[in-house]
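Sample intake sheet
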Amino acid sequence: MVAATSPRMRRLHVPLWELLDPREHGPAMAWSAALALVAAVLVRAAGWPLWQASALAVAMMVPVFGAKWLADRRRFGDAVTVLGILVVLQGFHGLEHVAQWIQYHILRWPSFISSGLISAANAEWVHFVWNWAVAATVAWLLWRGIRNRWMWALLAWSVAHGAEHTYMMVRYLQVLDEFRALGVTGVSAQGLPGFFGRDGWLATSPLTQDSFVCRAPGLTTAVRLDVHFWWNIGETTLLLVAAHCRMRRGALPGEGA
């Protein structure tokens, strides 16, 4: 059974909040977030790189989120709890892309150092594994009975997103092999374009060059950072709507532990 939430939230009718509400873990989550922020600022002031300070802050938040998700599992069952975990993790992943966008477009950092809050995670294999993990999780949720048109759209979007990262991963490995054949070491192939954007497959393929596809705004001209910013905006939006629709339906059979 779906647990009751606060009177104010019942009045506002926000089903998604039922999934995200920290409930009894609210005070601990607030204190944990405050301490994580203070710790990140202090270690950054002490000379730690931004990504290490950010990773420390995230690590400090893990225990309280873990406690919330264990409580959610008892309250909602496995499938809805996994849905909630995916919303939070995809939200953080989207925040990384927002940070990259701000660094590049507002702070005017070069693209090769506009790597978000945890730059060590801005690696080709991390993107590849993460995006296919999201697609696999969405497929599992559909199998477990969390089905609505937004979930199916999310599956299609996440598979397409994963396919582009597969293309980029293959290109990445090919370029590394070419570097090794030339005796070049210590050079990364990170940041190669995918299907879309500047120098991507659509922009360079004889099948699409000079076609109406290349005249679509940004489709063959956007930098990689922008392309994947919009990939993740779409993915996060579909996930939030799908989760909202699921929680609006209340407790359903077949989704328990």
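Comment: The mean pLDDT is 88. The longest helix spans residues 149-181.
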